[in-house]
Amino acid sequence: MNFIMKYGIAYVMDLIFGDPHWFPHPVRIIGVFINFLEKILYKASNKKVSGAFLTIIVVGVTFIVSYYISAISYILEIFFLYTTLATKSLADEGFRVCKILTEGDLEKAKKELSYLVSRDTGNMDIGQITRSVLETISENSVDGVIAPMFFAFLGSFIHIDRVSLALPFAMGYKAINTLDSMVGYKNDKYMDFGMVSAKTDDVVNFIPARIAGGFIIPLAAMILRFDYKGAWKIFSRDRLNHSSPNSGNSEAAFAGALGVQFGGKTSYFGKIYEKPTIGDKKKSFDLRDIMKAIKLLYVSSWVGIVLFTVITYLLDLLLKKM
Description:
It comes from Fusobacterium ulcerans 12-1B. It holds the Pfam family CobD_Cbib. It is a multi-pass membrane protein. This is Cobalamin biosynthesis protein CobD. Helices cover about 70% and strands about 5% of the residues. The chain is mostly helical. The protein has one domain (about 5-320). Strands 1-2 form a two-stranded antiparallel sheet. α7 packs across α9 (about 195-225), α7 crosses α11 (about 245-260) and α10 (about 230-240) packs antiparallel against α11. The longest helix is centred in the last third of the chain and has 35 residues, at about 285-320. The chain starts with a helix and ends with a helix.
């Protein structure tokens, strides 16, 4: 079975099953491994060096284990490729908050949102909750969908002993992403220890974030008859209005497509920050924006897999002729 067929099955599995909470997801196992190593390595006096070792060990072990999983069975390879995608689970999280808000339970919506974001949710109104959900969906459209796709397809061109590196590349990316989410904070505890993890995450997301914001999301917006011109305009203008060198790319494209403005006053750990704005405020936030963002997420994932499939197919033909 060729890679395109295997990845197509994995993609459909993600759309159907998402991330069942009862299932011991590989990312959770990676998280447990990170916690275990952190307790040991954080004791070192040179936090930057020990943090670098954390990154190397976690990514290296994930890569090697994924390689042997791929070597055992293509069925296992397909299954684990499916676990690197998060289209449905990300959409479900947004829909869950939207449904609670529709039912009028603001306090429950704040609590549900607190599981998704690191910002303070206690004093949020409906507009702020909606904005937070939209920012989460737009940012994670890269981490949870486009970037794993990119690395899976990239790895499919490389083989070791006839074993494709598609899964090791995709799962290795997820390991880096998990490291960043756990130790990549710019606070007193992780400023040095998490520096290598955070910088590595910035590097691996550089290309996927720009492919997503500059092409995939605007094209998805055009298919949906959203404001695709606005998506491209805001991407070009505001994508650097973010503390992350990558997150602003997809956020800007989403903001432009939906006609809303991200950023502004945001509370983290009891302190108010004035984040740079992304997008033009053509309208106030409402619950329909969440459903539109979910549609944009799904269609972006479809555009992504079609794009990477076509590129892979054409490159395969070219390589066979050489």
